[in-house]
Amino acid sequence: MSALAIAPSACIPRGSTAPSRRPAAAAAVRLSAFRPVRPARGPLRVRSQAAATATVDVKELNAKYGKGSAVEVKEGRGGLPTVFLKSAAGATAEIALFGGCVTSWKTAAGQEVLYIRPDAVFDKSKPISGGIPHCFPQFGPGAMQVHGFARNADWAVGGASGDAAKPAVTLVLKDSDYTRAMWPHAFKAEYTVVLDGEVLRTRLAVTNTDDKPLEFTASLHSYFGVADVETANVRGLQGLEYLDRVRDSTHPSVHQELRELATFRGPVDAVYKAAPAKVLLDNGSGDVSIASVNWPEVVVWTPWTAMEACYKEFVCVENALATSPAKLAPGAEWVATTAMAFSRDPLDEFCASNPEDLECLVYDD
Ligand SMILES: O=P(O)(O)OC[C@H]1O[C@@H](O)[C@H](O)[C@@H](O)[C@@H]1O
């Protein structure tokens, strides 16, 4: 199993990762102006209201929206109705209707890019802890449950495309008694996931279907697997102002990112403002490129030892609209897109099949 594969039920043993050859990241952290000074707040609690469940017949859905092997609707993890995409290039993605959550994205070579936490459950008793959950209509903190309700509700299938090169599905979430109890607005959220060759594209469109204005915040809470959080880094954030939420997410402190490579040596919960069109996550075996349009912020999060069992194995790099709500007049629409691509480091690829080669026997301290 790849070091970045989704953990089945427990954290991946440390020893299972390929030899690391990235002392540069460790050196970079010494230049850092940013040192988290105390551990993250205790174990994270998801205080969510009961999920908005719906009973769906996957066979019926597949008959309606399935497109051969390019788009299939069937039971996924935990029996959850899930849309499976497979592109002609051989990449795959899985999107659970519960939460509209992308739970897997694999390259044609079978490498999992996303991460599911070992404490994730697939029984709708809480949001799926991993993959790409939605934060909507509140990033938080705020009046409603942390990260809103969209990750805790069943989305419907609104359409699918069987274009073999780039199969796609559109999921839809509309207001219901469940959502209006928390947020008194009529809305429609349409989330399109396209597997364009090996590139995972998303498009989130939110429409105010009410007769009064609404405001919301949001993010794609993307969990990415990393070989080791201490050798992972994020590029593209240098010079940006960020809000450090580790001590207090309600009253974050304001800083400027000085590092070219944002590395991890403690808990990080940072909202980077005025985010660039693209950031890169070095996950230890290559770069995950995260390009976006109209997501104005990037949230970088690692709980560190607050999640002792698995914190080394993932980093969240989230496309976000966290601090300044979008304001929609009746009938207005807000749209944001992302394109995520993974390019494997050629040396890593070589070392996977030649672990004893001299060039591969370089270790961090
Ligand atoms: O709800 P989850 O998936 O455990 O994630 C919680 C974290 O999500 C991050 O987006 C926030 O920046 C953190 O403050 C928060 O703790």
UniProtKB/TrEMBL annotation:
GO terms for molecular function: carbohydrate binding; glucose-6-phosphate 1-epimerase activity. This is glucose-6-phosphate 1-epimerase. One of its GO terms (biological process) is carbohydrate metabolic process. Coiled coil: none annotated. Its EC number is 5.1.3.15. CDD domains: D-hex-6-P-epi_like. Keywords: Isomerase. Belongs to the glucose-6-phosphate 1-epimerase family. It catalyses: alpha-D-glucose 6-phosphate = beta-D-glucose 6-phosphate. It is an enzyme of class 5 (isomerase). GO terms for cellular component: cytoplasm. It holds the Pfam family CP12. InterPro entries: Aldose_1/G6P_1-epimerase, G6P_1-epimerase, Gal_mutarotase_sf_dom, GH-type_carb-bd.
